[in-house]
Fold these 4 entries.
Entry 1:
Amino acid sequence: MAVTYTSKYHAPEDPGGIIGEILNMGAEFTGPARDALLGWTLRLGDTQDPAEAARAVLVKYGLEKGSDPEGACGELVRLLRETAGYSQARLETHMCRPESAHRNRRRGGRKARHSG
């Protein structure tokens, strides 16, 4: 089933025009900004890097620099800027690796404390 977006803001970096529509709303957008960011991220799918898409959205709407809009719209811009700073390489350096998780477990877990 094909998805058709009708927003004039629809673009590969802004599927469905979620960010564009919110920015157009301005102060009328009451949030929550985190939910909007999550919805945008989920629409990107697994083929687009969220950091690259966030950078493209910020440039597209002229928000890469300057002051933030007011209210929840401004919070969304701040979240996009934060997302833009996390490249795939940066995320990979912070991911838990199974071997490090194994080394960080508490020694003498539940069984060891209760045996006896």
Entry 2:
Amino acid sequence: MIWTETLRVAWRSIRANKMRSFLTMLGIIIGVMAVIGSSAVGTGAKLEITKQVESLGSNVLTVMPGSTSFGGIGRGVGSATTLTATDAKLIVQNDPEVAYASPVVSSNQQVVYGSNNTSAAIEGTNEQYPAIRDIQMAEGQYFTATEVKDAMHVAVLGANVPNTLGMNAPLGQTIYINAVPFTVIGVAQTQGSQGFQSPDDAIAIPYTTEQDLFTGSTSVQQIVVSAKSANEMNEAQREMEDTLRVAHQLHPSDSDDFSIMNQATILSALGNITAILTALLDGISGISLLVGGIGIMNIMLVSVTERTREIGIRKAIGAKRGSISTQFLLESLMLSLSGAFLGLVIGGGGAEVIGQLVLKIGNVVSVSAVVLAVVFSILVGIVFGVYPARKAANLKPIDALRFE
């Protein structure tokens, strides 16, 4: 039997039992949708993580104080008071691969403007902070080195703060932070969420002012640093470690009393986590396809039983075992590929709509996921169609013709 005739007969057999064929394909449809969905979840998570990390600024390294312990219980990284603003100055002065460095001092304070008041995060930084975090100004300007040095009472508002405080023209207005007057000199553009706290809801003031008025300490909570290029981040980190160990007078045998978080390392670690989760979801999706394959084998065995007399007649008039086997194998493969096609249309279309319109992160369906789903569906159709095809081909004509 020529191939075109074999395909025609196989397709006619599938169409003869439309509902049964659709229910058989349903397992493959769900399995392919699961593969596409798991890939879209992984791709979307990776894109979102990358966007969030990159929104913190380019080539950023963060220096955190060391840890302390109380009663033998460690309080974790950042609980010590081992970093000062002098450390930030030394890093910029001594480390060739570092472009900018800024101390960061944070606290939550009550902010009042007219009859409106709110609790807001007050971020104490220096004049280099906008270059590190890539902060653009919507209006006004960031504070200068002189304003930092003189601990001036000036403030830069996050993008959402004017609305929160009911300010129509914030520049030059006076707000009260913990009852202390500050002059608004700038409003930052929207930066978006960065974890649990959005910089759009924060207020930036000189770190010297925050230390004098609110924390009463010369230590800083962290130092954010920008390397000159992404390729030199590891070298910048090494230079910073050397500078801080000398500044803190640490003996060669002493452990660091600080820790440095490399943005590239963080991104790589988070990428590995999403890859593991995606692989886990792909494994579950693969099980769905296997279940669909079992459904195909089951229905093909039923088809062989129903068409036993047809097989006997074809063999009696000269059909060879290979032709019979090929026909049933093609039917299995067509069921699998039809299910794969519908799964790709439904799953891929749904993932694209969610990625483009809902999450707004662009294309989340990867070519590799589509190829994997199609290849796996072909394998399922072949593997689970072989046994029914062989059973049909091995029927003896005389027994098949006697079958009731």
Entry 3:
Amino acid sequence: MRPTKREYQEIRYRTAQIKQLVFFGFLLLMAVIGLIWFARPKESTIEKRTLTKFPKPTLQSIWDGTFFFHEKTADEAAGGVSTWYADTYPLRELLISGDHKVKALYGKQGNQLVSNGEKADEIPTGSVDLEQLASMNKTEPAQTEPPATQRIDTTASSQSGEVPVDTIPAETTAPATTEKPAGAGDAVTPAEQAGSIYITENCGYGVYGFSQSGSAKYCLNVNAVAKALNGKANVYCMICPISAGIMLSDAVREGIGCSDENEAMNWMYSNMDPSVTPIKVYNTLKQHNDEYIYFHTDHHWTALGAYYAYREYCALKGWTPHELNGFETVTFPNFLGTFYSSSNQNPSLAANPDTVTAYYPNGTNEMTMYSNYNKPAGQYAEYGWKIIYDVSGYPQSGLYGTFSGGDQPYNYAHNETITDGSSVLIVKDSYGNAFIPFLVDHYEHIYWIDYRSFQSWCVWAGKPYTSISGLVTEKGIQDVILCNNINSTGSSTLLDTMAQIFK
């Protein structure tokens, strides 16, 4: 029997009431969640940044309203209460992920260039005055890498049963401790930013812009190291290409304003002291650009890309490199790296996550490192660690942390299968992390430092030096490899940091 008109109206009324109750109940629930103070995140795993801090109230800020409504600028830690509330909402990352999953259903995405607007310089020809060129004013280039602040997640399970100690032990022995934290290189606080990115066909590519003043200053820094180590150690320099210069055609690269990386690297090598041996890897990587040598969602090369660089170093040293099938491997799927976070979580990148493959050294997988996790600025603790670490419990954005302990200021490994006293120091940014494991099998003593935080570590450790030459002299190191990605050679901030220890 069909309902009467009155009954039909009552059904519509009750349905409308239920909808209103559901709607306002949802709003109330979301408001209550927003009031859960202790559940508010401090850092964003997806966006790889520190979130807005709660503003400190003052009479002035309350009076003029900025305490309640103020947009946080790039150099500010806190904004207004409204900005803090929105930026640290407990379900924020879940909602962001959901939004991008919906956008991924829109269909194929067009090409996209995520750029900071920096214009590249012309690459000089012929001889130049490096001092004069370095003194030219130049704004920050396309990619910058702030000082390393990677951390360790001490909340997860142990892998080898060691805990941090705050003393300064002998670097050649693993710390005698009983519990070990489970993560090197916290993905939430990144060491590096991706810079300009070109996105096409579900892949991101790092874009390089040549800086005359920056590149000249990089050469001067390298030459300072060569002078300081003259007669003490062999100096090698490996400028690592980034993905656009290797993976894209010349036409596409020129179309997006990307400088010629090979030309830029050759110019820098030609202006270095003759005692510096360049490790030229561009042509080798270009020959293998049909392979998985760069990540699609991150600015690093893969371990396979680093392996081809390792082969070039072996050729210079007269060594027979190990074949890939001579290594045990481990893989970590679903990696979403810096391109993803720096492109506002581009849906096409989310649909094409990376797999991180790592190759275990044959000689040893044990290392010692220092980290400032949960420490005041300038304070460090020692950790026993793994050169290839199990990061299966890490967030998607942190899987590159499997390599070499991440970006820590000072690290050491002793390969007891070699007893000839051979030693190497790798001075690196994060590109060196995937390169280091391949060197372990060829030296008895392997040291690596991140130049962005090494000086701070030296001060904490009570060293009488804060320089590469000081460490080389103390340890009697024979080979020094300067390993930086090409965008590092144009950043005024990083070059100033290098200058403080490249001596």
Entry 4:
Amino acid sequence: MLLVIEVADSSLEFDRENKLSIYAEAGIGEYGIVNLLDSTVEVYRNPAGSVYANRHEARHGETLEIRNLPGASIAASEILPP
């Protein structure tokens, strides 16, 4: 699996802690959390053990490159609430 995206409001802490470590340990290259509370997309990349080496937050107006799918991208506005 190259990419996992979760949508979170009440599950945000669980997704950041529990699921993040599970996906990192499984070697999932990119993990995204659509954070409905802060209207951001949290992108975690480069798994290293049970953590990710890189974290980026995208907001409306930004485009997210999907690194494991060359040429693929998505506008944060397309997946965030208005």
